[in-house]
Records
---
Amino acid sequence: MEKIAVITSGGDAPGMNACIRAIVMTADQNDLEVIGFGHGYRGIVEDLNQPLRPNDMRLVSQRGGTILLSSRFPEFKQDKIAKQAATVLDQHGVGALIVIGGDGSFRGASHLARFWQGQIIGIPGTIDNDLAGTDTTIGFATAVDTAMEAIDRIRETAEAMARVFLIEVMGRHAGFIGLHAAIAGSAEAMLVPELEPQPKLADLADNIRRARKAYPDSSYIIVVSENLWPGGIDELSRALGQATGVTCHAAPLGHIQRGGRPNAQDRILSMQLGQSAVHAILDGSRTVMIGIEQGHVVQVPLHLTFQRDKPLDQRLVDLQLGLQQINFASNDARESA
Amino acid sequence: MEKIAVITSGGDAPGMNACIRAIVMTADQNDLEVIGFGHGYRGIVEDLNQPLRPNDMRLVSQRGGTILLSSRFPEFKQDKIAKQAATVLDQHGVGALIVIGGDGSFRGASHLARFWQGQIIGIPGTIDNDLAGTDTTIGFATAVDTAMEAIDRIRETAEAMARVFLIEVMGRHAGFIGLHAAIAGSAEAMLVPELEPQPKLADLADNIRRARKAYPDSSYIIVVSENLWPGGIDELSRALGQATGVTCHAAPLGHIQRGGRPNAQDRILSMQLGQSAVHAILDGSRTVMIGIEQGHVVQVPLHLTFQRDKPLDQRLVDLQLGLQQINFASNDARESA
Amino acid sequence: MEKIAVITSGGDAPGMNACIRAIVMTADQNDLEVIGFGHGYRGIVEDLNQPLRPNDMRLVSQRGGTILLSSRFPEFKQDKIAKQAATVLDQHGVGALIVIGGDGSFRGASHLARFWQGQIIGIPGTIDNDLAGTDTTIGFATAVDTAMEAIDRIRETAEAMARVFLIEVMGRHAGFIGLHAAIAGSAEAMLVPELEPQPKLADLADNIRRARKAYPDSSYIIVVSENLWPGGIDELSRALGQATGVTCHAAPLGHIQRGGRPNAQDRILSMQLGQSAVHAILDGSRTVMIGIEQGHVVQVPLHLTFQRDKPLDQRLVDLQLGLQQINFASNDARESA
Amino acid sequence: MEKIAVITSGGDAPGMNACIRAIVMTADQNDLEVIGFGHGYRGIVEDLNQPLRPNDMRLVSQRGGTILLSSRFPEFKQDKIAKQAATVLDQHGVGALIVIGGDGSFRGASHLARFWQGQIIGIPGTIDNDLAGTDTTIGFATAVDTAMEAIDRIRETAEAMARVFLIEVMGRHAGFIGLHAAIAGSAEAMLVPELEPQPKLADLADNIRRARKAYPDSSYIIVVSENLWPGGIDELSRALGQATGVTCHAAPLGHIQRGGRPNAQDRILSMQLGQSAVHAILDGSRTVMIGIEQGHVVQVPLHLTFQRDKPLDQRLVDLQLGLQQINFASNDARESA
């Protein structure tokens, strides 16, 4: 086996470029050649290839996005399209394909494995961290930092004006970004999909009302996961405003969470996974994801990464639920003192 | 005259704290005492005062928001409320009041001047930069940097996925943030209120379509001022998507533009204005705004700051309109070459 | 037990304030009162106390440094000084003391335990990460991010001018910051105290020479731990310059690594440890450090944290040693192709 | 005239890439072709050319450094080397050369003009801002922001530990970065070359001593320009430490000031100058620098930019000298109150 191909697929995530660098450097030391296909699976099918060499990698780790470009490519589910990809890979003499992406990308990889004999290695790259088999994914830590910095900014103006803000963060259908951003941003409340039971509107409103009464000059921030509340945070803000009599401002963070320079944690993770992926190829692994669990690099069968749900870390859920609890009795006591 | 009072009023802006520091330091060197009232005009009326001393100022310039807190207080338009404020100021022996804020705050200051004999000095503090009589306002430069950094992040993911984004920036009814952010973010198009004539939907759509055809793998970013397009960027994104057949993503930046550490430009401006305001008080000025024009500190009668519109710098408008123009002919030529 | 005291001691670290917040919030929910003593152990002895209340905590997590201030206080090793501290704590009715700091602070805590009957809980707060019994310490992740961002900046100018840079990072006598910053910064070489054997000057010089020959237009960055090379990086730069004939620029990062807003990882860690410390007090623990190992909060006898050396994660050492290895043979092959 | 060449020369500065983008976009709209030579003047002599096209420019404005690379090339002073450059330019059919750089680069440009008939246009690109004929230069505003952020970080740890810091900033032989960073960082003292008379060691020491006495728990920061104090800030720190009995910490910021993403101000300036340079070429200008004075783009004969010294803005000097003055009398009064 002499040639490795790499794609980034699905939503881009900060750290993908650092991962590509590690793949290229590690391959080079083992005398393997690396080519990249642009735009994910589509790029394989359309043969949009380029050589990836060590000297091109010196300034890429620092950058967000992906130098290989990415795309969503639902057509890849069709057998004939996947077969075309297999043909292109064979024509290039590619012996192993590394796919950096999320669950959709890994479904695609599993599909491709039916038609292609090469080794396929997945690397978890998604800001949402919603892949089983790995504690964290490329881009997640940076997305949390970005969301936190945005919350910090909003906190300053919210505090200056004593305002209530609902801040919507990404995560697709998982609450990882929401939970971590809520803790890091010292949020007064948090709405993420995994909470059981979900907080009721009446309880949220009650908490806001009591907090405003106890601390009238203070800000109040609720972190809300996307795709959770029907009508989104605009609707939730209206409902809470009506229930409390307090204007509730909606701040959706949106796509800024996807970009930006990867932080150190994401770069280190990315390079660790990239290096390990090449080692796994040399060791003969196939159709696995390279993940990280409790500091150890692990290999997980690809299909297990998207067939199971990954739970939030309950200790962190308890941390936030604990910290966000306002002791109104204590405040009353102090007030009356 | 021995005592100066300071308030921050209306929307907070990064740099207000640096301005307060300069006021306090300069007053102290001239043996003037400074007190602050919290929450803007409301704080005067409710006598929410606190002493402001040099040694408390060492860590404030770095912070966004306002340590004095702010508020919108429409009740201040009533004569009897303004008279109450005058009474409180007199009770404290305040000889001069410095108001850091925007046009609403300066209207309030003009109103107060009818009932209070002390000196009133305005300092332009608003991220929107929509005050006549000064080239720039406290917070504007930082807001532009914040918007630009957000555009940079979105650019990375937009480029990775070859997407079209509409990014909505603040500015109330003025296009200053929009114009500067569009240039700094290398936007492909810009919609700000001052453009004459306003770009038509059909022309925008046509440009997007041609750009996608010429550069199918590229991002395309339109910076749009708030309060401009009926229905906002959500509606505009839908309309453009329909007209072009290309998905157009909407990204409203919202309140993150208001917070954050002031950049150097804003801190220097803020301190210059704060120091000059105290000097103006010592020189006997009253009912003026301290502004900056072409590097020089100027004094402008307060009412002139909100009765006139401030135009955009036409040279910068021309800069952006020039840079954003794609030479499709040149592309066609290269393509056919 | 009704009252908890908190100090921050030794070098400050980003995240200490988030930790204080978590302590205060958690204590309040459990109807415990919290006081802080300023300037570490010195503040106990001099009784520089202040109440710490939930409502004061809303804007502190975001800030670097420590709101309680810190100091080095070698006098605390004297028995009579420690006894004075015990007396002050007793006078305030303090039942438990939380010390956020590094190994010197924990030695102080162990010393105090000889003279004071209250519970003493340590929380690891140091950017150097050189405490056994915990995978990481408050401030470490942020310091790595800061060092990495500095390296990124230097990389840009180094690349523009094709220069060799030696960048000195903190860490006292441990290589944690050096190792993590080298990986995150894609350094071409790394000098940290734990490497066995230490790279020789001749080998370093040889690598630089060969890299310059293979890639004459490229930057080359060596990350060097402080307190490692006799004469520091100035001396090492001179020596390498002489050995290679290439100018080697020295860039000591210095104290910027200690300040700055804590990143999300540090805030979450800090709050987790702070909350756990209060729970540990309620559970009756004494003279332990609250640490984190593989995601789990653990308690470690205080004296074990500073009597053992903590090794680097060998997997990360291997990662960097692998990635930094330039395959000159591969380059030669390409050149001759 | 159909072809423009561009080089970046001397020390790189954030914003150079945005300037290159503006040149390429503007040229393209006017049907001019642009080529870049790598590594400054050396790249012309060695004919290291590359085409620069609009579609390559979409992701460059955001980046520090220079995509064209730069170098110092003293050999260019030789007539025969300059003649070689002229020959290469003629061989490519270049009609105009744009040089982005500082005074050394403009001396080179003047030299080249003796041997080459094409139009030569200079654009001021240096973080030091030490070019006459323009109020500011590409990279200066970003360097000030970078220095300020470093001072902010050091301020936090200095405050936590009540320390005195001397922070050395860049500027070559000019105090622009020093002055602006001192104001923006709220420095307690400033040493820049233009001060007349220079502060004496005894006075600095006296101020530190008095400040420590009046505010023993506070930080004290002195911003010092490079190349000013014999022996640098290490020597000055030792001398001040000896004179005051207080440890004075030295923090040289070094090359981090040169890198980093350009801020909005620098990007806008860069694009304005780049666009104007192409317009100047179309208008037939030759051997001028495109500068900016009070918001207006101006043209200045090249040799005037490096033959005169540019003074600091005296108003900003007065601002800092005013703000940094501690009113000890006021403190004594309060103390005794």
---
Amino acid sequence: MFKERLQKVRNLNPLIHNITNYVTANDCANILLACGASPIMADDIEEVEEITSICSGLNINIGTLNQRTIPAMIKAGKKANKLGHPVILDPVGVGASKLRCDTALKLIEEVKFTAIRGNISEIKVLALGKGRAKGVDADIEDKISDSNLCAAIKFAKEFSEKVGAVIAITGPIDIVADKNKAYVIRNGNVSMSKITGTGCMVTAMTSAYISANKDNFLEAVAASISAMGLCGELAHSRLKERDGNVTYRNYIIDEVFNLTGDKLEKGAEYKEY
Amino acid sequence: MFKERLQKVRNLNPLIHNITNYVTANDCANILLACGASPIMADDIEEVEEITSICSGLNINIGTLNQRTIPAMIKAGKKANKLGHPVILDPVGVGASKLRCDTALKLIEEVKFTAIRGNISEIKVLALGKGRAKGVDADIEDKISDSNLCAAIKFAKEFSEKVGAVIAITGPIDIVADKNKAYVIRNGNVSMSKITGTGCMVTAMTSAYISANKDNFLEAVAASISAMGLCGELAHSRLKERDGNVTYRNYIIDEVFNLTGDKLEKGAEYKEY
Amino acid sequence: MFKERLQKVRNLNPLIHNITNYVTANDCANILLACGASPIMADDIEEVEEITSICSGLNINIGTLNQRTIPAMIKAGKKANKLGHPVILDPVGVGASKLRCDTALKLIEEVKFTAIRGNISEIKVLALGKGRAKGVDADIEDKISDSNLCAAIKFAKEFSEKVGAVIAITGPIDIVADKNKAYVIRNGNVSMSKITGTGCMVTAMTSAYISANKDNFLEAVAASISAMGLCGELAHSRLKERDGNVTYRNYIIDEVFNLTGDKLEKGAEYKEY
């Protein structure tokens, strides 16, 4: 039940260590607070092990990565693994450069991730070691639709088995899968793609969900992805004529702040496969 | 016609590579999305050439520059030049330190800019190699008014000829000039100076306009500057009693999101010189 | 009188040099503008001396510190000291890692701070050289209440005497003290802790207050802390059913923008000890 997953985040108030980009760091911090967790951002190699040690989970996001922060990501990830902390990866724009691709693949090799969340193009790059990616957005040809849904679920399950992490592929239709089971989630609003950082934000929130729900990572990730989509729907219904993407962003985080287990349970739109 | 310039951004959805400061990166990303473009931020020297290669344009902003990112700016700029991509420079606070001044002058020497946007104090520093600048704001003695407008237009045209870029000087009165022609734009609201990053934001948006309008850079820059000012006016008219500078910032980006070619054409206030 | 302290910020429009974290830099810049000051963010060691020289005050915040920016903080601090500029320290999460603790202690050793602002856990770490800290939030056992208020005031006065800076301990009850006198301030709203960066923001605003009120640092700090709390109350009263922490953040900065000396004088809740 997604309801219990949300409730556990609110009850346990997990502290999340974020090594993330400077574009959306503020939104990620606020959405973590909104969902009931607490954020700390720290990326210097001298402190990441200590920081991650006082936290319950680790969120690694490769947007605006640089050569100073890459070793810090690996060091923090290894430490979190040792401590048994859930770790999530957001491979932002992984198809856009060799540096991002090499970094993401090295991270997956050296760190055991609990979950990986990206758009379909990003996840394909990770799975196939190559792919097309128009910057940080999904390539049109990659989009998941009802006509290729079965293949996409199969792909997600297989990649999950290979890498040992729950795989979350977000987009108009979201797929959350481990090797045995997948959730296909149909929450969300198409306008969410007109806000910077909705991907980063849902990954940050998901890090809180897995940190507070170590008994069932798959359901925790699915609950978080569904919660974000639902908040996107609710926030969209609040928009008035002159509101645009920034007010929409603000309202989404506000809805996360006000989301209850009952609202999530009622609004979640998903099927299991 | 400014209308067509805006419409082309919406039609072509240009992907813009931003090497920019961490203070306003989120607002720049959201305004790019709002105007119809897509942003990617990347500043590591190992990836900037690749990133700029998959984009349509490059936005270089020297706010919070550091010695790691300066060579990345130059490398990205040279690559964009080779590829024929429009490149814009925002010389944030260029008069405030030798590092910023040297960096901006080196950038201008090594990279061919399509456009440069700054306040009058910043543009003077670039043109004269010196100048006064109170941090990131224009010095009062520099302000363009009706009494010195002709001299300012002449200055902008001459600097444009010298540097080979469209020059946009923004402030209470905006001047957008190439060597032959200038637009004097009177859109905007004085309260825009109470928001951090309006300069960075309009430069980011202008990078989208020039990337989508390679047939007429001068008009593209003028359309973008006018659009930002107009959105500043429209957003200001929405403010209620207790709203302040942050709600104003949000509303400006919202207005950019909702701006149409017709609204821009009707609201643009400019004369050609 | 707090009223005059606020008015001086608006009259003098101090330019503040910020070496701060990338999570809340945008909010800090906007709150500085909102209160009547101007921000400039600059952290490269090659330019910090020059930047601080053209400013009236310096704000050093160790959130997302790294080995590149630490020497820049020290260099800027020493320069500000030489010039007689007020300098403030925000020891964000100082108990969370050795790097943060060592950096903060080194800063205090090498730079003379006018004021230091943190939560009780952070200030305890600075004073005792150790302590508990759950990331960037205060530890529950540390919380100041009416039952330990006298001891907390004594602690703040003694630490102020030792370090030679006005000490601001913020939380449900705020204490602002120099060696002789303390203000106990009871403005604010408990939900402010659900917004990222309220601490960073009040420190940034306080840097403006001390820079514009060099005749009475203690009262300047108290006025700023009270002003932030009051704006937290006023903003909270504006929230409607579906608003959450991001709208709350926006409204707080908006209230700072609209705050007058009279409103502050009337709304400030404090006692002197």
